[in-house]
Amino acid sequence: MIPTRERRPLALAHGAGGGIDLNFATVIDRLGPVRDVGGVDYPGSGTVPRSSTALELDDLADRLVAHMVDAGHERFPVLGMSLGSAVAMTAAARHPDSVTGLVLTVGFARADAQVTGFVRVWRRLAELGEWDALAELLVNASSPAVLETMDEAARGEAVALARAALPPGGPDQAELAARVDVADMLATIQVPTLVVVAGQDRIVLPQSTRDLAAGIAGSEVVEYPGAGHVFTPAEAARWADDVADFLLRRGL
C-alpha cells in the first residue's frame, strides 16, 4: 500500500440515514490502497451524537472540509451520495480553493415531491417507533430487479440488516434532504464533475439526477440503467471503478 502522505485524497459525503462506512465500504476497499479516502459521519451517524438543532448543508460541508484539511489535504475532490451530493456541492461553493472536483451519485438539486413524500413516511415511522417498517421501506429502495430475486427469507434478512444499520440521526438527516435546494448553485460549479444516475431509483428519480447534471456545465454522466437507490455489490464495484477512472482521467 502507498503511504498515506503519498496518496491523493478523496473526501466522502454520505447519504441520509447512512454513514461513511455504510455507504462507501466498497469505495474505501477498492480505492483505499491508492488514495487517502476519508470523511465525517453526520450528527446521529456512527459515533457522532445527534444534533439538538436542525442540520444544515453549510455546517456539514464545513465539517467535511475541516476534516480533510486537518488530515493534511489542502485540495481534494469530493464524492457525494444522495444527500451527500448536496453536501459536496455546498463544499465546492463555500470552499472553492479546497474542492477540486465532484462525483455526485444519485443526487438532486432540489427536493421534489418524490423525495419529500418519502421523507414524510420515513420520519413518521421513526416517530412511531416502527423500526421494522422503516427498514422495509428502505429495503424497498432496491431496484425492482433485485426485489424480484428475493424470497420471503431473503427479504426478511435484508430488512433485519437494514434495521440493524439504522442510525439514530437518520430522521434528522432525512429532514434536511427534504429541504435541499441548491439549484441556484449549479451554474457556479466550475470543477470537473461526474454525475451517476441510477435508472431504477425510487427515492431520487433518475430524471432529478439528470436535471442536476444538466445544470452543471461540462459535467459527465454515467447511467446504471438497472440500479436502484441502494446499489448491489456488483453495482458498487462498478461505481468505485468509475470514480477511480474519472479521478485519474481528470488528474484529480
Short descriptors:
252 residues; alpha/beta; Rossmann fold; 6-stranded parallel beta sheet; 6 strands; 46% helix; globular
Word description of this protein:
Helix 1 (20-31) crosses helix 10, helix 2 crosses helix 3 (83-94) and helix 5 (131-139) crosses helix 7 (152-165). Strands 2-1-3-4-5-6 form a six-stranded parallel sheet, with helices on both faces. The two termini are 19 Å apart. The protein has a single domain (4-113, 170-249), classed as 3-Layer(aba) Sandwich (Rossmann fold). With 252 residues, the chain is α/β, with parallel strands linked by helices. Helix 3 links the parallel strand 3 (76-81) and strand 4. Helix content is 46%, strand content 14%. It has ten helices and six strands, in the order βαβαβαβαααααβαβα.
Q: How helical, in percent, are the residues?
A: 40-55%
Structural class: alpha/beta
Low-confidence stretches: none
Mean pLDDT: 95
> If strands are numbered along the chain, what order do they take across the biggest sheet?
2-1-3-4-5-6
* Euclidean distance between termini CA atoms: 19 Å
Question: Can you describe this structure in just a few lines?
Answer:
This protein is an alpha/beta fold. It has helices at 20-31, 57-70, 83-94, 113-128, 131-139, 144-148, 152-165, 170-177, 206-214, 233-249; strands at residues 8-13, 35-39, 76-81, 99-105, 193-198, 220-224.
Topology:
Layout: E1 8-13, H1 20-31, E2 35-39, H2 57-70, E3 76-81, H3 83-94, E4 99-105, H4 113-128, H5 131-139, H6 144-148, H7 152-165, H8 170-177, E5 193-198, H9 206-214, E6 220-224, H10 233-249
Parallel strand pairs: 1-2, 1-3, 3-4, 4-5, 5-6
Helix pairs in contact: 1-10, 2-3, 4-5, 4-8, 5-7
